[in-house]
Specification:
- The chain is α/β, with parallel strands linked by helices and 379 residues long.
- An 8-stranded mixed beta sheet has the order 3-2-4-1-5-6-7-8, with helices on both faces.
- Helix 2 crosses helix 12, helix 5 runs antiparallel to helix 6 and helix 7 runs antiparallel to helix 14.
Length: 379
């Protein structure tokens, strides 16, 4: 039944040499270290050119009055997704209810990154029900699949409430290129639109471009950005930012971090240090450790989360790049494996393309329109 699995290329996992931990003082967790290094090695080394330290604070002006463009629906955003294409084609090709259909369904789910265990579980459950003649036709089977997929995701549909602490500190982590800085920009826009006082901390000091990128988001949204330029100590930038946020009565502080190992110590060291210095000012900070995952990374996403959880206690996930041709199934694999709240999903590159995760809207966006049914209210 799983014969196809062996044929599936593991595009992202194969053939990458493991990166070496550069610093002797890096405290690497035993065992799984290589996996993290592999994940990190996938990311090309950034070109950093601009040393120098400066401090930049964008003016905390009035909220921008630009009208929000009409938001596209989840289904429009998720259109072209391998998941929906696969299922649409499958039921077109094979409308008859039989074991072959279920075998192919399993193939489709695994190909869409749902993960072997979750796919097998889902399909075997449907198979039992089919043999009990619970389904009159393929449509009924699809309805049951929809229900099962929603049930998998419901427990992780837990929105992030940035209340109860002032400032509420969100530490954003994840590998390079996952979409951290972009997500922070989108979050700044969202929370500012909710009339919260937001501040950003440019904690990815490894790359000059990363600091500039965050400043651009800050300027665009009139949100202050605390930075000390490239090569500054990330923990000191974030500590500084928390002090500034406290003195200015900021509601939410969002801190960016570097996504890879660098020469002055390991990623683990750096994240651990950031968490420690924050606790000097607020014993409960960070109040959310938000891990950003590129939704096109496939099953590698699962090992990334495992690694980051060991380094720093991840409390919520954001899955980006689910628009376009992403497979989307990794959301199910993550939900099943970790049960960590999925706070947001990225459905595009612009400021309003970050949605609070909704299990039903997501599943209906993935399923072919004729089968999933566009429930009203999924905007
Ligand atoms: N299509 C799409 N692209 C995204 C999304 N989120 C981020 N990106 C893009 O992914 C690339 C890397 O993002 P960036 O925020 O710099 O990643 P970082 O290294 O983790 O900070 C950029 O080109 C972003 O525009 C998303 O939800 N959809
Ligand atoms: Mg970045």
């Amino acid at each position: 039944m799983l014969k196809f699995w062996k044929k599936k290329p593991t595009e992202k996992d194969a053939g990458q040499p493991a990166a070496k931990a550069p610093a002797a003082d890096a405290v690497a967790p035993e065992g799984d270290e290589a996996t993290l290094h592999e994940a990190l090695a996938e990311i090309p080394a950034p070109a950093d050119t601009r040393p120098g330290h400066e401090r930049f604070v964008a003016p905390a002006g009035e909220p921008a009055a630009a009208p929000a463009p009409a938001r596209r629906s989840w289904r429009e955003r998720l259109a072209g997704n391998a998941f929906s294409r696969g299922l649409g084609a499958l039921f077109m090709r094979h409308p008859k209810l039989d074991d072959d259909l279920l075998d192919e369904l399993e193939t489709t789910l695994i190909t869409a990154d749902v993960g072997i265990e979750a796919s097998t579980e889902l399909v075997e459950n449907l198979r039992r029900r089919m043999h009990r003649r619970e389904f009159a036709d393929a449509q009924a089977l699809l309805a049951a699949l929809r229900q099962a997929l929603v049930a998998l995701l419901k427990p992780v549909e837990q929105p992030l409430e940035v209340r109860g602490k002032q400032p509420f500190v969100v530490l954003v982590v994840g590998i390079n290129g996952a979409g951290k800085t972009t997500t922070i920009g989108k979050l700044a826009r969202r929370w500012r639109d909710e009339r919260r006082a937001v501040m950003l901390a440019a904690g990815d000091t490894f790359r000059a471009a990363a600091v500039e990128q965050l400043k651009t988001w800050g300027e665009r949204n009139q949100v202050p950005v605390i930075s000390q330029g490239q090569d500054a100590d990330a923990a000191s930038v974030i500590f500084d930012a928390l002090q500034a946020a406290r003195s200015r009565g900021t509601d939410v502080l969002v801190a960016d971090t570097a996504g890879r190992l660098h020469t002055q110590g390991g990623l683990m060291d750096e994240l651990g240090k950031i968490a420690r210095v924050l606790k000097k000012l607020d014993a409960d900070a960070p109040h959310e450790v938000l891990m950003v995952i590129d939704g096109t990374t496939g099953q590698n996403a699962v090992s990334q989360v495992r690694q980051f959880r060991q380094i720093v206690g991840v409390t919520g996930l954001v899955v980006t790049k689910l628009d376009g041709t992403a497979k989307g199934g990794v959301v199910f694999a993550l939900a099943r494996e970790f049960g960590l709240p999925i706070r947001f999903v990225g459905l595009g590159e612009s400021a309003t393309d970050l949605r609070v995760f909704e299990a039903e809207a997501f599943v209906d966006g993935l399923l072919p329109a004729s089968l999933g049914g566009e429930a009203p209210g999924h905007d």
